[in-house]
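PROTEIN ENTRY
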Amino acid sequence: MEIGTGQIGSCSKEHQKIYQDWFNFADSDNDGRITGSDAIKFFGMSNLSRQDLKQLVSLAQDGREISHDLLNGDVDFENVKPPVMEGLDTLIMKKKQSSRSISPDSNGSSPMQTSAAAQWFSSKSSKKISLSSVTSIIDGLKRLYIQKLKPLEVTYHFNDFVSPLLTNSDFEAKPMVMLLGQYSTGKTTFIKHLLKSSYPGAHIGPEPTTDRFVVVMSGTDERSVPGNTIAVQADMPFSGLTTFGTAFLSKFECSQMPHPLDVSDEFKRVIYSLRGHDDKIRVVLNKADQVDTQQLMRVYGALMWSLGKVLNTPEVARVYIGSFNDKPVNEAATGPIGKELFEKEQEDLLADLKDIPKKACDRRINEFVKRARAAKIHAHIIGHLKKEMPAMMGKAKAQQRLIDNLADEFGKVQRDNHLPPGDFPNVEQFREVLSGYNFDKFEKLKPKMIQAVDDMLGYDIPELLKTFRNPYD
């Protein structure tokens, strides 16, 4: 940051230095900008009221910046004195002293010049960090990813073939619950019942009212954020949705607020897309008090039969029966037994939802291991294709031959490296992406990178799980 630009540079050198020191102190990750999180930490040390701090945070999250017009406005910078920040000078001095006490590295630069977060998510792998500096399971997974897995993914273009590179928000994002259902089945009512309040953009009616994907999450104020905006926010886990383009993002929005039967063909396709995530699926038979006990049994039986055909799993899916709204249960239809059943079902469902954070930590570990195994196999495939390319003549024909016989090449990789065939990617999808690449520019297989991932799976992750427990146990 350079303060001496525009009219703000007309303030005294002494004041410029004060502002620079404040900025450097507030910029905790040294990325040259003040984020909302940085601002909260910095102004939290002040004597400002909670209301004033709330307004500051709101401005930061709205993405408002200091404009050129503001900097060149009628402000007497020469006579504007910095506000008094009691105790801040002492903290800044301690930070400078601790920075000087750290010896420079081999290039003569201090490790403090680059923050941990900036190092983790830079294009180059950072130095190895001992497990003793890790603070949690998620923190350990994040560091292992940057040290050992991300270099392999970048080298062999894993992000183009399988999954985008992970970001900070992918590790730290809170678990989310997705509600899917046909219109007028009580999705919005169910959310309002759990929140015990409405949320921005909520509308209930007999016609199809919610014609979009809505993310309901906590925030400082009640507001709706368009999909195109929320998808590019670095602190939100929705950046991967940009691959679906503006057509999808225009039907996607985020609603922020302070926290206090027969399956149609269209819905079948939605459920089919969830295959592989069967352990995450929960089925809710809502508005069950609109029919009597006999009709409810028939509806429940028909629903289980339809789900059995769609989910195609050996285990029967758990179905929660109830009427999830703020109105009293219609006992005239259900009778006293139905009311007691609905109350118990609601208790079970709420207990299941409250257990999500604990399961999310375990699932994050499992997904990380699956990703590492997939990245390792991907590197073997790319390295094999590179090795099969001729040194001089006939490269185009050789590449086309490899693409046409991709299934056979997968078999060679599997046999030569004793890899599980079930972990290999879909041949047709891989071939489609592969056709846009020049094999001759692929990297050769680097055994050290493969060994680093093997060590991570065989030693680092088990050691991490021994050192730290699930924080929700």
Notes: The radius of gyration is 28 Å. The chain has a mean pLDDT of 75. The chain has 20 helices and five strands. The first strand starts at residue 213 and ends at 218.
